[in-house]
Design goal:
The complex is a heterodimer of chains A (638) and B (687).
Chain A lengths: L4 E4 L9 H10 L9 E5 L2 E5 L8 H5 L5 E3 L6 E3 L23 H5 L6 H9 L3 H11 L3 H7 L19 H14 L15 E5 L3 H12 L3 E6 L7 H4 L8 H13 L3 E4 L9 H6 L2 E6 L5 E2 L12 E3 H10 L8 E5 L3 H12 L4 E6 L10 H9 L3 E4 L1 E9 L2 E14 L5 E14 L2 E4 L3 E2 L3 H5 L24 E3 L2 H4 L4 H19 L39 H4 L11 H8 L8 H5 L6 E3 L4 E3 L5 H5 L5 H5 L5 E4 L18
Chain B lengths: L1 E5 L2 E6 L13 H4 L1 H5 L9 E3 L8 E3 L2 H18 L5 E5 L6 H11 L4 E2 L7 H11 L4 E2 L8 E5 L13 H9 L3 E5 L5 H5 L2 E3 L6 H14 L5 H7 E2 L1 H11 L2 H8 L3 H13 L3 E5 L9 H14 L9 E2 L9 H4 L7 H5 L8 H5 L5 H10 L7 E5 L3 H4 L3 H10 L2 E6 L11 E4 L8 E3 L7 E5 L11 H11 L8 H9 L6 H7 L1 E3 L6 H5 L8 E2 L3 H5 L19 H6 L2 E7 L13 H6 L4 E4 L1 H7 L6 E6 L2 E9 L7 E5 L41 E8 L9
Parallel strand pairs in B: 5-6, 5-14, 8-9, 8-12, 9-10, 11-20, 14-15, 15-16, 21-25, 22-24
Antiparallel strand pairs in B: 1-2, 3-4, 3-16, 7-13, 17-18, 18-19, 21-26, 22-25, 23-24, 23-26
Helix pairs in contact in B: 3-20, 4-20, 5-13, 8-11, 8-12, 8-13, 17-19
Classes of the chains: A alpha/beta (638), B alpha/beta (687).
Chain lengths: 638, 687
Amino acid sequence: MSKISLVFSQADCCGCHTCEVACKQEHGLPVGPRVVKVLERAPLFMQYYCHHCEDAPCALSCPEEAITIDPDTGVVLHDPEKCNGCNAVEGKSGAEKQQTSPCKFNCPAGNDIQGFLGLVAKNKYQEALRLLKETSPFPSICGRVCTFPCETDCNRKQIDDPVSIRAIERFLADQDRSNGDAYVPKIHKAREERVAIVGSGPAGLAAAYFLAKNGYKTTVFEKLPVAGGMMAVGIPLYRLPRKTLSTEIGVIQKMGVDIKTGVTVGKDVTIEDLKKQGYKAFFLATGLHQNIRLNIASEDMKGIMNGIDFLRDISLGNSAPLGRKVLVIGGGNVAMDVAMTAIRKGAESVSLVALEQRSEMPAWEREINEAEEEGVKFVNGLGPKRFLEKDGRLSGVEFKRCTAVFDETGAFNPQYDEADLTTLEADTAIIAIGQAPDISSLKEQGIPINDDGQIVADPITLETSIEGVFAGGDAYYGPKTVVEAIGCGKEASVSIDRYLRGLDLYTGREARDAQLTPITEPYKEKYDPAARVEVPWLPTKERMSSDEVQLGLSEQQAVQEAKRCITCGTSCVQACPYNVMQFNHLTLKAVKCDLCAEKRARNEAPACTWSCPAHCIHWGDASTFPSGVDEGLQRIVP
Amino acid sequence: VFAHVKDGKVIKVEGNPDDPITHGTMCTKGLSVTQLAYHPDRVVYPMKRVGPKPSGKWERITWDEALDTVTTKFQKVVDEFGPEYVFVGQGTGRDYESHLYRFANLLGTPNVLTAGHMCYVSRVSSSLITCGNLPVVDYYVNEPKLIIMWASNPMWTNADEYKGENFYRAIKNGAKLISIDPRKSFYGGKADIWLQVRPGTDCALAFGFHRVIIEEELYEKEFVENYVHGWDAFRERVMQDYPLEKVEKITWVDKEQIRAAARLYATTKPAAIHWGVPTEQNNNCTDFTRTAIGLMGITGNLDTPGGNALFVNPPTRTVAEFSCHKSLSREVQKKRLGGMEFFLGARVQFINPKKAWDSIVYGTPYQLKAGLLCGTNPVVSRANAKQAYLALKQLDFLTIVDHFLTPTAELADIFLPAGTWLEQNYVADNWKRHGYVFARQKCVDIGEAWQDHKIFLELGKRMGQEWFPTVEDSLDYLLEPAGITWEEFKERDYLQGEMVYHKYKERGFSTPTRKLELHSTMLERWGRDPLPKYQEIPESPVSTPEVAKRYPYIFNSGLRTPTFFHTEMRMIPWLREIRPWPICEIHPDTAKKHGIKDGQWVWIESPRGRIKQKAKITDGLLPNVIAAEHGWWYPEMKDPGHGWDISSSNIITNNAFETCDANMGSTNLRVCLCNISPCDEEWEEAK
């Protein structure tokens, strides 16, 4: 028997919901699980249905191996005998199991966190890594530098502390790399269309990764001599060893993505040129690689540098003329990175001067502490007034007291006492007060830019006012994190895929303000009582000479930590890229489309197919489907 | 449909691929019949109300007691006042009109209250005086090359001849599509031309089509000369009263778009008009139907393969014959409420509902004393529902035949449990005009429910009427002219009439002049305008600008759902899950103006009352139109009102006689004026 396909033609769907009810009747499903679902957005409708994916993330994510792919037909089947509903208990976290867990809900990349934790707990590292790679190209990077919003609302907090998710992600990625050849995801089906991506930061590379997975011929243009954007020239080396980065970028190249470094789009080549070369869609993710200036006198004096340039120079191995007494001006994470990098580069003393009081500083607590441990001195509540010069070089900075950073509305609007002055000696000052985009080349090409210098694009589709040109990442929404950029790049890939296939860009993507229902009671019967494992860090002294200051978990630690997950959601429900896996709150088990296996055994057609008055549902050998039936939707970004 | 029965219970239904109408497809309502038939709230034994009206207090009784109570009461009214003091009624066509009408006719009452005054039968009645039969799109034998989808959504819902499957098959086979709809629906998205018409002005738009066709001489001259009565007068009216600029002003449709659509319709052969019920549910009911039939006729698409055919039904007994319509004496017919006024309705034996409510409430011209309503929920489904509620609450004696205790049933004295379509034997579709009848066969008995036919038969027998020993005997009688018995019919599954096209060429149309009467001799005889015309919607920015100041939006009711049929099905879990709440569609600009968010509860208010529904924000309709669902009540609310006045569009609509069609008595369920505001009131979502 050959592979059986199931395709709902979106063009023919009239939104009558007959398929839904036919399915419910056939399988006796109660209110709740909707294995087939039609989204109404007249005049177009969108069907959610099981695509019986070749690589079936639901099957991958199931730690009980309750979901398998039938080798004869390719139909993805669920075995209720093996399924334990991810430890569902009657009356407890029942109905909520249909929704995603807070970890996935909060993850901008939409990682099936419960799924990979469950697999790690069963020592299935390769499966767990593959599952992660379904939604993110950068587990190794996120495992190190992610701001882990996944841990914020972890339901384990109802018992003790959240699961150490980031550390386990890193463990998986390190395992994968230590195997020699890192895992390379499969390309679904080669397509002819070429897509150009401008900028090789996390947003651009994520878009490239997902487009490549969908078979598009993708080229990434990078202005700098190295790929990776801020991952390569912003994040300090001691946080993210460049070997880690190059491995993950290498995987993307192995998937067929061509990365051209040292090419500035707008200067070396224009979008118009690229169109002529056959590129059909564009994604602009140029990031924020310029410094915000203080705009006070003598800012270009010898001895004054700015943070972004400094970090870039260090990352690229360029010389950075650092003195002995360094003042870092700024209170954010970049300022911390600059300060700690300056210490590593041999500065005798590094002081960080921030407008804000210690408690108001925008940098994370964790990084502030780290900097302090490493010897960075903090001076709070001062704003630079003027630079002092001696022999043509900086000799110090005069500061005025900042009386308030924010106004009543909470807006950044610092007030000063101009009479209360403090002078700090320094031969080097590094200004790290914020980042700005380099928009000159974009503007020239007619890309719409707002007053804040950000690219203007639709918040849902990311399309700019120029057809086929999409934008994302920091250049679009301002400074955010790697994982935000991954999520944005993925959204862009969905838009570009739909654009190139002539589908509506909006359908099914509007309702993103969903709220999670807190679980009624966490599953306490079998949870592992161990306390959260804390990620080990190198002792302060050893940090200065090491590649990486944060260490990974041992296998035993990772497995132990993964077992702490209280499985508040359902792995397969969260793994499904088409949002069709369901949890049946009556049987307390997952439920999915089996393409009416019983009916097929009797040589009857699946229930949804015969009832449809538009005959929009096709099943069987895909080569026999009428032309014009679309291939179904791009995987839906969670 | 095949029903799978296991241990005396239907466990599943599936479409029959050999069915010539559905080709095995089904709709959500049909597919969830098991949840209807075995619903825990379904009433499957007769009951009498034991508390005051409406207390929700009911007590189970035997069929004997129930039937005796009804017949004794009816007999008493007949004896004391006369048979016309009893009314009989039904809702949508459910294949029991033959038996219901026979009961009413043999009882001797002319007062039959059906949905027919504004739905389907009104179209039939106007068609009868114009071309002798109802024109139906020929999807079944041939296929149109162009379809005008005029105010209909057959892919979701339809009770008449049509199933969406046939329409869409024609589209997939390449038929062109013109969509006439205030909303950009599925059809607007697929159409070659979408005419976004102002709600309720379809008749004017039809005149616009005529104008283009006449001006550009796109009509069939031979047909017009030989088969149309009153062509010159009609033509003159079109040329004098309906210049395209005026039609554009009335309908809000760009005149060049009208021109393009009319040309496409007149030059593509065969072409068919697939019309929906909104064209009937206003004051232009009769004249829209007549004007549209005019279009079919003069373009040569009437009774043509692939056009609007006059199908030949199998030779079974018609509803009129079976039910002895002719047995009502002229004298009795004169007592029909509103019969002289709404004479076209009277010709097909129905009355306007306000005539009944006025009779009960005000005693004019006499006071109805007792009634029987079968499969209908008028306190939700009829215009000015508040009056319907008041009247039925006040009525001396009411019997209800239904599946559930609806808000209307709660006002009854006796409840008789009816069987679903799984529990009946009948010659289905006998009242339709697509040329087929089907053998609907009983699969199960549930509780003590009886099929409606049996209820009328047993009631009739107890009242001394001439009936048949069993329902199946009555079916033998229905089938007799076709030369088969019910038992034989069951083996055949269905009968098809022998279709002949262009019958008018042989024997003319079945009208007094044997022609297509654009000038109606019947209307003329009754002293009415014999030519059709467009009359402005009684409550609109045009006709009542002062009302429009306070109520600036056009309330366009009857927005269809894919899951419910009128007031039915709100208790079916599979369906309610898909559509949990009533929806009103609002344009984004309008929503913004009122600070209304998608999914928010919204007050909709007219001079007659206010309701709440949930906003669905869409740019598929004009900013000054609010499209709202009808038929809502909340079976999950356990008080005897069941939320009948919370969300039902008919709290808003008007039923004044001057808003009705003057010949037919069709009420305007569709279009009036309203205002909206966000609803901040806390309301427990009772589910």
